[in-house]
Write a structure and sequence with these properties.
The complex is a heterodimer. By secondary structure, chain A is of the alpha/beta class. Chain A has helices at residues 47-50, 91-99, 326-333, 339-355, 361-380, and strands at 2-5, 62-65, 70-75, 103-108, 114-120, 124-136, 141-150, 152-162, 167-176, 181-190, 195-204, 207-216, 222-231, 236-245, 251-260, 266-275, 283-292, 298-307, 314-323. Chain A contains five helices and 19 strands. In chain A, the strands form two sheets. Chain A has a ten-stranded mixed β-sheet with strand order 1-19-17-15-13-11-9-7-5-2, with helices on one face. Chain A has a nine-stranded mixed β-sheet with strand order 3-4-6-8-10-12-14-16-18. The two termini of chain A are 24 Å apart. Chain B is of the alpha/beta class. Helix content of chain B is 39%, strand content 27%. Chain B is built from nine helices and ten strands. In chain B, the strands form two sheets. A six-stranded mixed β-sheet of chain B has the order 6-7-8-3-9-10, sandwiched between helices. Classes of the chains: A alpha/beta, B alpha/beta. At the A-B interface, helix 3 and helix 4 of A face helix 2 and helix 3 of B. Bound molecules: adenosine-5'-triphosphate and magnesium ion.
């Protein structure tokens, strides 16, 4: 890849921890697209979710996998766990919060690292809101996969409470239908020595805006936030990642990689890292890499780092957007590999770094084929 | 017995300002089992010749022919040329992030042979070839050339040469950047391929040192985009003593 190492436009997040929070939609002004957090978002396309009435009925789900130590149930709005991991920081998130009837609780108590898959494939075309609470008991271990497909006009909040000493791998896969619009805020709160691996794979949907935040409260907690996305013609895929190192000796790694192909394919990555005044011994690194495969596609990438204590181990960021490198293709072709296959190899390799960390071989294979299908579809178009 | 034949080959490259003529009528014939050394000053067009044979899209052929056993090589894409039996060990091998050497080698072997290599023997073949080139087994799982040192990249090129078994190989300054031990190891790899498959070799180099290990049958002096003189191995020694001055002077007088 010809890597154009961009010196990131360095806008300090100043008051990221002081952004207004509210669960009431109209506490936030109507969206104009000029807000810092919506600068790259086509807000007009989201008006049904930001301004209209929302169906608050819980999303239908199907659970598969070994469900020992796992339970799914609905909980009331008044449940004390709701709001335990975070509160809305923008109008779309608040709209969802205000509108949901009952929340979907997914609770994990098992300690033998099972994989559970939750399929959400019938959200439907009407605008709706959802709220999910994922509660991981102290010392529990599991991989939870949430697979999203079908049509959707959905704004939602996902709270993730990772108990002391627990290890959670949370994978969310966005393979929505071409017409779908999906806005999500994920709030992760990690307890003492808790570990969260948060993986996002976004392939399908007209507009996806998924903002994961990890609040490292507990001493020694750590978060790895990974993302892979592939945008083709007309798709807008946005991920705003926020890591708040609040407790001491906390670690975070953020790696998002994206491929773009086709006219008006647009991806946005904003990565905010805040190292609070008590977060001594923090070790943090965030990076975003984009591979632009054709003309007419655009990748925006903005890393931000705000440090409020001097006593840290490390904090860094990197952002690079590169084009398909003719030299790479030629090298592979000069070894007998046909052009189509050479392209597949390069893109698959680029995104493999993320997909390979899911740790569920069947899902990894399925996503790898889905990425290859994206490639061949777009090259036919 | 195969023949790679280059006749009156002319190529240009498009630069930002204009179109630059680089090869100005190259004639060269390489037969199976022959070793041809090509020596010449910087910028004379040696790599351009190598890339043009391999089919790099950056270079435009404006005249002449390249044939492999009578087949028109210029009508083939780069991957077709490789499958027809041509191989280029590059002066600057390219890094491919995210693609492991193992995966790359198997994909290339499958493409060249038209069928996937036997699962039973392939792994062993790769390991054995890497051992002979004194490449640590970790290079199999690393991404193609990524973070390899200059010398490690060159070994990786020769590893591919040995595993893909082409008919003809162009080695573009494979010796540059190799330490004395590596030069010997890499040369042995080239000689093994030469003996095992009757490989025909076009060896581009600036130094006679490699010619102590890989013995050329012919030496060509390459100046200003064409072959200025041809001779036997003794010509290389003369070049080492005298340099290219008299050829360069003659070329600019033309
Ligand atoms: N893509 C290109 N754009 C502009 N000029 C080029 C390009 N490729 C080659 N050239 C020019 O063509 C000439 C020949 O280059 P080439 O790399 O073939 O030389 P060489 O004989 O291999 O030199 P060296 O011994 O330094 O490797 C040089 O003057 C070089 O600058
Ligand atoms: Mg050269």
């Amino acid at each position: 890849m010809t890597v154009i190492e961009t010196e990131p436009s360095f806008i300090p997040v100043q008051t990221r921890s002081e952004r207004p929070k509210s669960t009431i939609r109209d506490d936030f002004a109507a969206l104009t697209g000029r807000e810092a957090a919506f600068k790259y978002t086509p807000v007009a396309e989201l008006s049904a979710l930001s301004d209209g009435p929302l169906d608050g009925a819980p999303l239908p789900i199907r659970v598969s996998g070994d469900a020992v130590g796992f339970a799914a149930s609905l909980i009331e709005r008044t449940d004390e766990r709701i709001g335990g991991a975070g509160l809305p920081e923008d109008r779309l998130s608040a709209a969802a919060w205000q509108a949901f009837d009952k929340a979907q609780l997914l609770s994990i108590t098992g300690e033998d690292a099972q994989t559970v898959t939750v399929v959400r494939d019938s959200a439907g075309a009407a605008p709706r809101a959802a709220h999910t609470v994922i509660e991981v008991a102290p010392n529990a271990r599991a991989t939870l996969v949430i697979e999203n497909s079908g049509d959707a006009q959905l704004t939602e909040n996902v709270e993730v409470l990772v108990g002391d000493g627990a290890h959670l791998t949370l994978v969310t896969v966005q393979q929505w239908a071409d017409s779908a619009r999906h806005v999500a805020s994920h709030f992760v709160r990690a307890g003492r020595d808790a570990t969260i691996t948060h993986i996002v794979v976004t392939l399908g949907g007209a507009l996806v805006r998924l903002n994961p935040s990890a609040h490292l409260v507990g001493d020694g907690s750590s978060a790895q936030l990974l993302g892979a996305y592939f945008a083709d013609a007309g798709q807008h895929l946005e991920h705003q990642v926020y890591v708040f190192h609040e407790g001491p000796h906390t670690t975070s790694r953020v790696t998002y990689k994206g491929a773009l192909q086709g006219k008006d394919a647009h991806t946005v990555w904003i990565g905010d890292v805040l190292i609070g005044p008590k977060a001594v011994g923090t070790d943090s690194y965030e990076q975003n890499r984009n591979l632009v495969l054709t003309e007419g596609a655009r990748a925006d990438s903005v890393p931000n780092l705000e440090i409020e204590t001097g006593d840290i181990i490390g904090a860094g960021h990197a952002s690079a957007t590169g084009r398909f490198d003719d030299e790479q293709l030629f090298y592979l072709e000069s070894r007998g590999i046909p052009e189509e296959e050479a392209r597949r190899l390069v893109v698959r390799g680029f995104l493999a770094e993320i997909v390979q960390q899911i740790g569920v071989p069947e899902l990894e294979e399925r996503l790898t084929s889905a990425i290859e299908a994206e490639l061949s579809e777009a090259s036919v178009a | 017995m195969s023949v790679l034949e280059i006749r009156d080959l002319k190529t240009t490259v498009k630069t930002e300002q204009d179109v630059k003529e680089i090869l100005r009528g190259v004639d060269l014939t390489v037969k199976s089992g022959e070793v041809h050394a090509i020596m010449g000053p910087n910028g004379s067009g040696k790599s351009t010749l190598a890339y043009t044979i391999a089919g790099h899209p950056k270079y435009t052929v404006t005249g002449g022919t390249i044939t492999l056993d009578g087949e028109n090589v210029l009508a083939m894409t780069a991957d077709q040329r490789a499958r027809a039996g041509l191989f280029l060990a590059m002066q600057y091998p390219v890094e491919i992030p995210g693609v492991t050497n193992t995966n790359f080698l198997r994909t290339a072997k499958t493409a060249i042979d038209g069928t996937a290599p036997s699962i039973r023997t392939w792994g062993k073949d790769v390991t054995a070839a890497m051992d002979r080139l004194r490449m640590d087994s970790s290079f199999a799982s690393r991404n193609v050339n990524e973070g390899f040192s200059g010398g490690e990249k060159k070994r990786n090129e020769i590893l591919q040469l040995e595993l893909l078994r082409p008919k003809f190989a162009v080695l573009d300054e494979t010796d540059s950047g190799l330490d004395v031990d590596a030069l010997k190891i890499v040369s042995e790899g080239v000689n093994r391929a030469h003996e095992a498959t009757g490989l025909g070799i076009l060896l581009i180099t600036h130094y006679t040192r490699i010619l102590r290990y890989i013995h050329p049958d012919f030496v060509h002096v390459f100046v200003a985009g064409r072959v200025a003189e041809e001779g036997g191995p003794e010509l290389a020694d003369r070049l080492e003593d005298e340099g290219y001055d008299r050829y360069v002077a003659a070329a600019s007088a033309n």
